[in-house]
Amino acid sequence: MSILLFIVILSVLVLVHEAGHFFTARWIGAQVEEFGVGFPPRAWSFVRKGVRYSLNWIPLGGFVKIRGESGDGRNDPLSFSSKPAWKRLVVLSAGVIMNFVLAAFLLAIGFMVGVPQAIESNLSSSAIVRERAIAVVQVAEGSAAALAGVQFGDEVASIDGAMFESAEEARTYIQAHLESEMQVTVKRGEEYFTYPMTATELEAADNARVLGIGLATSGVVSYPWYLAPIEGVKSAAFLTKEVVLAFYGLLKNLVVHQEVAVDLSGPIGIAVMTGEVAKLGFVYLLYFAALLSINLAVINFIPFPALDGGRALFVIIEKIKGSPVHEKFEATAHTVGFALLMILVVLVTYRDLVRFGGDILSVFK
Length: 365
Description:
The protein starts with a helix and ends with a helix. The strands form four sheets. The chain has a three-stranded antiparallel sheet with strand order 3-10-4. A three-stranded antiparallel sheet has the order 5-6-7. It is built from ten helices and ten strands. A hairpin with a 2-residue loop joins β1 and β2. By secondary structure, it is of the alpha+beta class. The radius of gyration is 25 Å and the shape is elongated.
């Protein structure tokens, strides 16, 4: 089921992306030669109105082949390259836009059903909150909480028998009892565990005495059906900003410090995570799919050859210099870019195999 879920989610995300290119290419009058589900070798296909629709053996997404997309056929009226720059940019941006729309749609469904999240003080008055809890959102390595056995995702049920309405109240109580042993009771799934612990000095907290747990007031938040789409768009915009900042930080560290400061995952890593998220429930899977859709959008619009952003960059360069980039140079750039991306995928996949090891087999049992 984990493998099937991964294939279904990835296929939907990529097909929605490619559908954006497909419909806008036809709208500007460029000839779409093939719309493929999966990647070659081809298993089955048919032709309708000049477009070949194919089903391919590698079930990891899909593709759209547009005449002249690599810069050739500038004098062919059906070629992508012959169209005005603004129309080509519309087609190249359409996939990214569709991924954002899909993410907003999935999040809107989530907000109709109810999404587990941290409850902020500025939460809309229209929000419906249920199942309030004090969630453990961070456990510092080597801290008293970590050594006692507290885990990320636990819910604090009580401390020394006292129950609290918010994370702020719990933090205030902890601060007042840092010198004494505390009995912290947490809920994990349907089970309760009580851990005795005493605050200790922690280097990560500037040698202050702490338990080493980050707390947040959480709950299942939903909205009326007519407000859920608005919240979906707002949440998708927030996630897009966070993903862009994360990629900026990744590239900055790679250039400045020659190191990767975050964990990267390829198809295998994402498949494993899909299986883990699916265990948490339908809403978590929706949120995960929305996050993947936004990641796909952001990655595709990086100005690197073979990606949508790279193709858009060539269009912009053409507009600035007043003449097209030589078609052989553009085609070569995209071919080399694609080869480099495939090498990156292989390296990240190998890293996934090393990192997850036997967990991969256990997830897919």
